[in-house]
Amino acid sequence: MQEGQFNQDFFQFLTDSPTPFHAVAVMAARFQAAGFHKLFEAQEWNLEPGNAYFVIRDNGALAAFTLAAENHQNQGFRFLGAHTDSPSLQIKPLAGTASHSYFQIGVEVYGGPLLATWFDRDLSIAGRVACTTADNQLATLLIDFKRPVAIIPSLAIHLDREANNGRAINKQKELVPILSQTGEGESLNFSSILVEQINREHPEKKAAAILAFDLFFHDCQPPSFLGMNSEFITGSRLDNLLSCFTGYTAMIETRTSDSEGGNSLMIFNNHEEIGSLTASGAKGTFLQSILERITPDPVARQRTLRKSFFISMDNAHGIHPNFSDKSDPEHLPLLNHGPVIKTNANQHYATTSVSAAIYKTLAAEAGVNTQEFVMRSDMACGSTIGPHTAATLGIPTVDIGAPTLAMHSIREITGSRDPFLLYQTISHYLSREELPRSEG
Ligand SMILES: [Zn+2]
Fold first, then answer.
1. 251 alpha carbon to ligand 1 midpoint, in Å?
2. What's the predicted TM-score (pTM) here?
3. How far is ligand 1, taken at its centre, from the CA of residue 331, in Å?
4. Which domains can be identified in the chain, with CATH numbers?
5. 99-120 pLDDT, tens per residue?
């Protein structure tokens, strides 16, 4: 695949995936179109060597895997992992209040967004709605208003002279988006708005009553190239849809070009931003239960896992020119200079010397530069899905990711070359004849 087409497809994926549920739906459609068979956890699986499959849990997590044509029970897996969720503002269950002729919707903060970046943006609403239909069935449907329908206005500087002096944001009081202007004593009925939207997007379903929802606000501004030489990409949810897109595209492309490949499995977990301890999160049972069904014999499964390797993909921090003292002076990842290996002495990243060496070998073979990140010793380190998987399954794991700026802003920044550099490395990993291994 060419880099120009790759980035265009990436922009489309970002636009089509305002929530984890949408990201999973888009990925499922891509895998299905590429010949991966859809499996359901509640049904029997009749897996065949040489075939490719995918399975979804709770709308927000997806695992896709390919089985070697011969002797797949005795071969290791090329594992890849990423997360589907991003920090956001989630709508409260009993949403909607009228105040001074404005109709507003209460939100909870999902994960750790940079809250200041959510003010004065053209916001839309998307997510999953559970409802009853006209024939009295329960249905779970995805909706995305796509157009700007809400805003959180800043308070004018004249009314808050301290606004530029590091004022804190009150999450309950100051973050409530405005949806509409109403007349005296009037209010909007949010449930009827949702029924209308469902019937617009799913006319065959005929929603009757809304029972519950997982709805989020998102920024309507589409992703863009930026810079005098278009050397940057800006957009929402680069953390971690960049890794999701790169992973599924590499799996599909290597599968198309080499259907004789070995075992590979990519897991896209939900809920990384809130700690991963959920049914569809990396601390849940999703990956383990899939592996139990692929290789039911526990000893054979352990042998398989010991021969496997896991690349956990999540974005990394590039050095920020205005805040360079926030980076370790010897570890300064740059945008457009290749994926970053993340290391932490306290194993908040799963990288070890062995897994880093294997990754460096893979990247060198693919002709892609490698950078290294370690947090300053006097600052706390973030984490990702890698350590959970390494601990649960005992697979050698490396934590890597594209360098970015403004992580957890409503609009994040990466290099325009970075997604493709990650893609080249991952594609090489998936199509390499032998699984990488270190003796000793
Ligand atoms: Zn992330």
1. 20
2. 0.97
3. 20
4. 3-86+236-431 (3.40.630.10), 88-219 (2.30.250.10)
5. 899 999 999 999 999 999 999 9
